[in-house]
């Protein structure tokens, strides 16, 4: 018997951009990002580049007639819900795309690609002035600091000048402008020195127009990812925003969600090629796909602890085993025992089953520890006493500690602060600690936190503690 066809109908978006033979940017990045958001991506290739993670070797711009033919083939067949542009290369290509954008009835995101991450120019000087006509048709234009300077004559070196550049772009006709903050410094240092210091926090500035024509400004802040592997980051962000707009979401939400998507894609970048690497367009999908396996891993560790009876190591507050997905960034992306593991008359038992987001304290500690070593995936809290402290010497790695008496009043949370104290004190060239001693405080139970890269490693370390104290 043949199976019944069960088609789905995703929204369709279009990217008009150059091809990247290295696969990390351009049309390739756009299509990967759209697919990751549940959007069917179509493309109009404007130029062929011979490039990789090191640089751009050659560029060949397609004839305008070929570009127009591609657009016509897509527009006459698909129900487009959004459109974004990338590398357009010449003024004639920009003019063509501006004409098509003027006729479009869907959101248009313009990423004014002018310079590759490697520093190679991707746009000739005549084309820079042609961008005004395309910006006038944009729902959103997404320049970085260098591109905003070329387009507006205003160099964004801080929040104020980023806002001014955004307002200038809106004044050129765009409905909104997102001035990306990756290359922008923070405060008077950037303004007075002319340099762009790398602030720890990146601020993207969204300027849009209210119904009465007045500009409104929203900022989106996120921690800077310490990496040079930014190849394809601009393409990925603009494509993510276009994908959300294709789903019918508001511009503000699309920018916020796209920025979060970009942050994860940068943090878990792909170490490919001889250059710095590329962003990971599918990191969010991989995170979701890893949840079931992580829950199963945690459940198996819990079962092993019950079989072995680890009651000697269960603290008064109860024990919890936490597993983070490979790309976890939030508590909801960690698995743990709901209600913790507690002592019983016959040993230990979990109060309930394993679910996502079930732990708060241990999960936040693990996530903070992963900022120093992303390979850490599992953690458990154990009883702290003299015997357990002495037993940590038998573990297969270094042990560190922190004292809550040192916690400042303005700390955002003890677990995150404690992890930063414990792991941040270790030299980057030294092995990652395998356990952390939290000596507690008044009304706060002292705890030994054991961390590991695999569930098997976590179990072995806990059983080493148990064997030693017994």
UniProtKB/TrEMBL annotation:
Its EC number is 2.7.1.49, 2.7.4.7. GO terms for biological process: thiamine biosynthetic process. Residues 183-200 have a biased composition (Basic and acidic residues). The keyword Hydrolase does not apply. GO terms for molecular function: ATP binding; hydroxymethylpyrimidine kinase activity; phosphomethylpyrimidine kinase activity. It is an enzyme of class 2 (transferase). Residues 1-23, 180-200 are annotated as: Disordered. Residues 20-280 form the Pyridoxamine kinase/Phosphomethylpyrimidine kinase domain. PANTHER family: HYDROXYMETHYLPYRIMIDINE_PHOSPHOMETHYLPYRIMIDINE KINASE THI20-RELATED, PHOSPHOMETHYLPYRIMIDINE KINASE. This is Bifunctional hydroxymethylpyrimidine kinase/phosphomethylpyrimidine kinase.
């Amino acid at each position: 018997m043949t199976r019944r066809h069960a088609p789905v109908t995703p929204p369709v978006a279009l990217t008009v951009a150059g091809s990247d033979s290295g696969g990390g940017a351009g049309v390739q990045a756009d299509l990967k990002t759209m697919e990751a958001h549940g959007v069917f991506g179509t493309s109009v290739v404007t130029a062929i580049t011979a490039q990789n993670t090191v640089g751009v070797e050659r560029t060949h711009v397609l004839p305008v007639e070929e570009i127009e033919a591609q657009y016509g083939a897509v527009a006459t067949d698909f129900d487009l819900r959004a459109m974004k542009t990338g590398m357009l290369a010449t003024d004639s290509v920009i003019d063509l795309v501006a004409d098509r954008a003027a006729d479009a009835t869907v959101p248009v995101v313009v990423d004014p690609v002018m310079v590759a991450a490697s520093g190679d120019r991707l746009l000739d000087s005549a084309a820079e002035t042609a961008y005004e006509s395309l910006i006038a048709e944009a729902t959103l234009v997404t320049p970085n600091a260098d591109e905003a300077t070329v387009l507006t004559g205003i160099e964004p070196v801080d929040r104020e000048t980023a806002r001014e550049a955004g307002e200038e772009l809106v004044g050129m006709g765009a409905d909104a402008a997102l001035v990306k903050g990756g290359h922008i410094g923070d405060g008077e240092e950037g303004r007075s020195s002319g340099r762009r210091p790398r602030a720890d926090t990146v601020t993207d500035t969204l300027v849009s127009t209210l119904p009465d024509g007045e500009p409104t400004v929203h900022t989106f802040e996120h921690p800077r990812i310490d990496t040079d592997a930014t190849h394809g980051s601009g393409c990925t962000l603009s494509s993510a925003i276009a994908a959300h707009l294709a789903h019918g979401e508001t511009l503000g939400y699309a920018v916020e969600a796209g920025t979060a998507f970009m942050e994860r894609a940068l943090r878990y970048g792909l170490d490919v090629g001889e250059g710095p690497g590329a962003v990971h367009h599918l990191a969010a999908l991989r995170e979701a796909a890893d949840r079931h396996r992580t829950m199963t891993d945690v459940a198996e560790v819990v079962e092993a602890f019950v079989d072995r009876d680890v009651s000697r190591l269960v603290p008064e507050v109860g024990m919890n085993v936490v597993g983070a997905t490979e790309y976890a960034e939030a508590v909801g992306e960690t698995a743990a025992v709901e209600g913790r593991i507690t002592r019983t008359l016959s040993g230990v038992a979990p109060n309930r089953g394993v679910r996502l987001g079930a732990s708060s304290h241990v999960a936040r500690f693990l996530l903070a520890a992963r900022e120093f070593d992303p390979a850490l995936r599992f953690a458990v809290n154990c009883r702290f006493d003299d015997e357990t402290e002495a037993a940590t010497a038998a573990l297969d790695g270094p042990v560190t500690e922190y004292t809550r008496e040192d916690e400042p009043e303005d700390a955002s949370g003890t677990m995150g602060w404690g992890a930063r104290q414990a792991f941040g004190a270790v030299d980057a060239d030294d092995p990652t600690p395998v356990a952390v001693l939290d000596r507690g405080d008044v009304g706060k139970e002292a705890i030994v936190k054991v961390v590991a890269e695999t569930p098997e490693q976590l179990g072995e370390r806990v059983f080493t503690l148990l064997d030693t104290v017994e």
